[in-house]
Amino acid sequence: MALTPEQVAHVASLAKLQLAPGEAELYGAQLSAILDAAALLDEVDVSGVEPARESAHLPPLRPDVERPSLSPGQALGNAPAKVGTAFSVPKILE
What we know:
Elements: H1 5-14, H2 23-39, H3 72-75, E1 82-83, E2 86-87
Antiparallel strand pairs: 1-2
Helix pairs in contact: 1-2
């Protein structure tokens, strides 16, 4: 599946990337190769395969038991800035 330069530019804008003039062709070819490889999975016959219910059969790392949590004062004790009983973080989007 060959991507058009417009599609590559659209994907780059979604990822908040600015591409140099030569990068659009390079990344377009790489993305097309990835999509072609993923398209091969459509050709696999999975008609007799049971759906997976769990991806991993691992035991839990620790027992899931209720225990007391930190008080707001303890949780915010080392916070550089706070507002009431919450952390204050700098604004990153305009």
